[in-house]
Amino acid sequence: MFSLKPVQHFYVASGCLGNYISIFLRMYNSLVERCFNDCVDNFTRKTLQKQEETCVMRCAEKFLKHSMRVGLRFAELNSQAATQD
């Protein structure tokens, strides 16, 4: 394998971090938009009503559980692919 100079390593690491932040922000924005559109339907108050708050909490929990399951599945597939090589 090849080794990188410290400056090159810095640029690679910062590029990876930028990609990670971009992916995280897209996931966060998707979660907020989906749960808001599904749960909030009354704009006459500053605060959420109890059923809206419950809906948002359930929506966020489902989204995070789904994301975790997808991540675990990708890890399993990656592990299987690595052992087949």
TrEMBL record:
Keywords: Chaperone, Disulfide bond, Membrane, Metal-binding, Mitochondrion, Mitochondrion inner membrane, Protein transport, Translocation, Transport, Zinc. Pfam families: zf-Tim10_DDP. One of its GO terms (molecular function) is metal ion binding. GO terms for biological process: protein transport. GO terms for cellular component: mitochondrial inner membrane. Residues 24-76 form the Tim10-like domain. It comes from the Eukaryota. Its main location: mitochondrion. It is a peripheral membrane protein. Coiled coil: none annotated. It is found in: Mitochondrion inner membrane. InterPro entries: Mito_inner_translocase_sub, Tim10-like, Tim10-like_dom_sf. Mitochondrial intermembrane chaperone that participates in the import and insertion of some multi-pass transmembrane proteins into the mitochondrial inner membrane. Also required for the transfer of beta-barrel precursors from the TOM complex to the sorting and assembly machinery (SAM complex) of the outer membrane. Acts as a chaperone-like protein that protects the hydrophobic precursors from aggregation and guide them through the mitochondrial intermembrane space. Heterohexamer. The twin CX3C motif contains 4 conserved Cys residues that form 2 disulfide bonds in the mitochondrial intermembrane space. Belongs to the small Tim family. This is Mitochondrial import inner membrane translocase subunit. It comes from Durio zibethinus.
